[in-house]
Every structure is written in structure tokens, then in C-alpha cells.
Amino acid sequence: MAVQDRRQATIYEVAQRVGVSIATVSRALRGTDYVAPETRRRVLAAVEELQFRPSRLGQSLAEGRHAANGIVFPDLSGPYYSEVVLGYEEVAAELGNSVLILATHGRPDPARKVLELARRVDGMVVMGRTVADGIVAQVAETGVPTVLLARAAVGALDTITADNDSGARRLVEHLLGHGYRRFAYLGDPDTSPDVTDRYGAFRAALADAGHTPPRAPVRCAFDVDAGHRAARRVLAGPSRPQALVCANDEVALGALAAAAELGLTVPTDVAITGWDDVMAARYAGLTTVHQPMRKLGATAARWLHDRMAGSQDAVRREVLPTRLVVRSSCGPHSAETEV
């Protein structure tokens, strides 16, 4: 016969059992000098009797402050991160949580900064390849509720990602359908877990279809200027590819500008695709893979709130769906379509 999980006691029940305020319970648990020894003894006895496990959210509430969420981003520049932050902050505000944001790009000793932030917040989201798995594990071991976003799972932590594999395979299938056979991939897979997955699926899809993938990516940062420089190098070379598959829309927008400067027509002379489906991609006619940027942030905020509230549910791993958005930059079509 299965044993049902007992409902967890709340800080209110402990306070009621002892006959004190929830603030007194919180102070007793933190061991401050403002609680009489006898009161602390009674609080601890009630905690043991009720099997109360204090949550970070409950402690914040008892202390009369908003729970603070820390979120660690690789960078804050560019529309992708802006959309994720908007989704996160919208939900955090609904839940009454404040948000502290740390961007690690260009910062000396990011691991130390992340560990410092963990001491100041009630819960933390770590996104992308900001710090090593060992640092994430250190944060989790301190008891700070931790959720991972757009990176591989670490231990028993909740993890949210987008479906890079299916999106990349649909994109390659579509480009092969246009007859393209010579490809270049613009972006650096070593600096982003998402791009690692996309590039791997891109190569696998070409190989599965009987075509030889490019020997290596054309490594560049994930911004318009970097995409522009990388595309100029490739497109001005002796063996111009038929299609540039870009790691994100910003790189692709830079590639579109480079093609125009070189007098090349898109898609007649070269096809160009992106990833993310940011607003500018829609106006540029860029074929891309849409990923739910705001939903990524919103889901992370909800999951972290649950863990801060003391949720003991099983570890959650969710892969949010992506979809191919076909526009004019990859070939002739009657209208924009989604695949």
C-alpha cells in the first residue's frame, strides 16, 4: 500500500503552535539574539514536532521583505537576452519577487561574482555557459534553490531548454529541398550550449541526408558586427557557399548587410538563415527558427518560485518546442510559412 506524502507544515502553523509571530519564528530559526532562550526552545520543539522545513520564500515573508531572485546571464546585450529577461521579470513581479541580474561577460572572476550573488538572494537561475558546472553545484550545495536555463542539466536541478535539435534538422531539410549543397555555419559552438546543440544537429542532419558537413564553423561572436565580419570573409573567398546558416538572428542580420555590400543578392546568390525570430528578422525577411524566448524566462521564474516556496516535487526537465519560420532569405516562397 502506497504511503501518501504528508502535507508540509507552514511557518504560520509553527507560529500558531507556539503562540508567537512568524517573524519571531524566523528569528528563532536564524539564531538571532532578539529571541528569549525559552521562546527559541519552544519554537524548535514545534519545528521538530510538525516536521517543518523552512523555505526561502517563507523566511523572506516572515522578515517582511520581498524574496530576491538572482539570475545569471552570459550577457545582456541583444534582443534574445532582452526577451528572456522580460519574460522572467514579468512573472517575478506577479509573484512579488525582486530580481537581481548578473551578466558575466567581460567580468573578471565570474565564478566569485556568482557565489557572492548566491549569498544575497533567496533563489537563483543560471543561464547558458556563464560558470562551470562545479560552481553551479557549489551554489546548490549551499541550499539556495537553483534552476538552470538554456544549459545542460547539473545534478538534480530543474532545467529548461529549447528544442535545438529538431529546429536545426527542420532547417537543414528545408535548405536541402531548395537544392543547396555547400554550407557555412557562422557562430562559435564552444561559447554557448544552445549553439553547441544547434551546430551538432546541423552537421548530423547533413550527414544523415548523405552530404558532407563543413569541416568547421566560421567562429564569431553572436552580434551583428561579428556576423558582418565573418560573412564578408566567407562570401569574398574563392569557394563561396550557397547558404550561410547562422547561429542566431543577429549574426544573420550582419551577414545580410555583408552580402549587400559585396553586391550579392539574397537568396539568388546566397541564402542566409538565422535563429531566435527576433523582431528585426521579421522585417528583414529572414528565414529563422523561432524559439519561445519570453516563455523560457517565464518558466524559469515560476519554477524557481516553486522551489523557494519549499516544493519537494521531482526534478523537472522541460524542452520547449521551436518552429521553423520560412521567409524570403532562403529561396522563393509564396508567403511566410511556419514548419
UniProtKB/TrEMBL annotation:
Pfam families: LacI, Peripla_BP_3. Residues 9-63 form the HTH lacI-type domain. Keywords: DNA-binding, Transcription, Transcription regulation. PROSITE patterns: HTH_LACI_1, HTH_LACI_2. SUPFAM superfamilies: lambda repressor-like DNA-binding domains, Periplasmic binding protein-like I. InterPro entries: HTH_LacI, LacI/GalR-like_sensor, Lambda_DNA-bd_dom_sf, Peripla_BP_I. This is LacI family transcriptional regulator. It comes from Plantactinospora mayteni.
